[in-house]
Amino acid sequence: VRRSAIAILLLAALGGAALFSTRALWAADTDFAIHFEGSVLPLKSKSVNRVIYLPLVEIAQHLSQPYTDDFRLETFTIGAQNARLVTTRNSALISVNGQVVLLQNPVRRDDSQWFVPVDFLSQGMSRITGIEFRYRAGASRVFAGNVSPTELSLSAQAVSGATRLTLRAGSPVQVEIQRDATQRTVILLRGRPIDPLRERLDYKDRLVESVAFDDSDGIPKVLVATTPEAKEVRITAGDESRVYFVDFTREVAATEAAPPPPPPDIGAGAGAGARRIRLAVIDAGHGGDDAGVSDSGTLEKEWTLAVARKLRSALQNRLGATVLLTRDADEALTSEARAGLANRNQADLFISLHAGYSANENDAVSSIYVIQDGFGSALNPDVEPRDRLFLPWYLAHRNSRPHSEQLATLLQDQMGKSLPEWKFAIRTGPIAVLASTMMPAIAIEFGNLNNPANAQSLTDEAFQTQLAAAIAAAAERFAMEQGTIR
Amino acid sequence: MPRHIKIALIVLGVGFAITFGLFVNVIGRIQSMVNDDSDADAFAPPAEELFSPTDPPMAVRVFFPPADGSVVLSSEDRTIFRSPGLGNRAKQILQKVVDGPQSNRLRPSIPPEARLQEVFIDDTGVAYVDFSNALATNHLGGMVNEQATVYSIVNSLIYNLPEIRQVQILVGGGERETLKGHCLLLPLEMDLSITNVKPREDSQPRAD
Is the whole model's pTM more than 0.80, yes or no? Predict the structure, then answer.
């Protein structure tokens, strides 16, 4: 009797486990919104096996479409005689005016409620209502009809004792800051509907815990959870209310000392051009075990980092751009990691800094490198790279190479003006970081550390600042002169 | 002596012998691992001569960086033996690159410690050129320097041996992302734009 009881128990446990594992993975309801002209429809979306499902009845009601829910046939019909849409439970096939359309995921009916995947809107609803639906994969909102949302990009970086959150919008927005006692800062965005490029920012430091976009209640806002260390919040607008810098600082008294660099005031001077460089990546060459070239106590890896930091503040001030360094410490990085940082952050500019060395100490020519023309295209001669969806890493430069050339020419000209005693030659080569960067990218090799006069200038702090200013000036000219990057 | 003690002694003796044997074996292995000088047989003469004195001479152009730094690469004319195998000719040319220039207008492009280990040429015209680790570890660095090293090898081969389409440099028998952090070591084509040498005027036998 006992043995059979154990067997029954085991069987029951197995059955339960099987039932559990085959059940669809339901996630909790999340807020979803459809932005129509003049109205917003807030919905509770469900996520089943990572597919987002929207409740169908609410959408049909909001669009004032007549519908019939046939319980017996397990079908749901929307619309009238000449514009009719029929869906069937657990089927990805829907019928629109007698025409069959295949969705990416089946329509569901759970607990006598109908749920449709998001592509039901563009594949089905738009054909019977004439309303266009636009959805960005991974987002929790859909824009319908003539609603033209403002794109918003968020970025955060630590700037000398403060954390700077940069909000960039495609068109002017009004911003209002609210702080509450629970270490939360709410940045309300007023104006047109907002379409954030990312829902949340993967950023955390001593002052900021998390940054996320939220418009579940219809009001778009950025929620910033701060640590108790963050005492003060300051906001600076720029670029005709398109850019906002929100600085979280540690102490209230620090405002006079001004730890963050002066807010980039993009006014009449910079204007439209500067907006084209929103994010720049500076690559300090070498690092870690790889010291680069060295002579009389100067290591290339230390020199490039010092100049990269100076160039960062020069670019921030001049362009109002967010500037990232590939490394802000003495660490080893592969070329792919350097290029990858710029590619992932969709940088508009990439500058790699190097110092030169020549066995001939009289040699003092600096070089501006652009990726070799047509580099890598002969490596896969049988497949035309244009026709390929996925490109090898080393072909990433193809579309931006003309811009890189333009940038190199401008920099050479600017260097001739700012540092007339220095000679810069434009060269091309199979430079690793330039092959795999997708944006205008150059590498600069300064002078010759074996040349005593060169080495003395290059290690001089004031000269480094001058160098950084000259490069920033060239970057600004590039931003003004080039047509369009994107 | 009682019998069981005898047996015990024999067992102990056999056990000791086995242990000793294992110990000697392990020590020997460790020593051979420590003393494993992979460079040792690299100095051995090649199994076959690269050329025979009866082979006709062949004028080649070998690329080296100029001392004045005006361009990345300049060149000088040298002579090799037109031996039957393409690989043999490639090795002779690369030996000229490794040996360095004769003119004092030019500088060597390869660290003096670096040695050419092997050359393979596949049927698609890609030459794989294997150098010892010193090519990378003893390189002084610098973008222009590195480009000079890479293209003195690539250009010297392709310019003189048009059967070779691309050259991939291997270091220490393996692929490497870059030589010293700058130049990608993928199969590279000849680049005369960084030199003061004009393209060859004679017709070039090409597969395509």
Answer: no
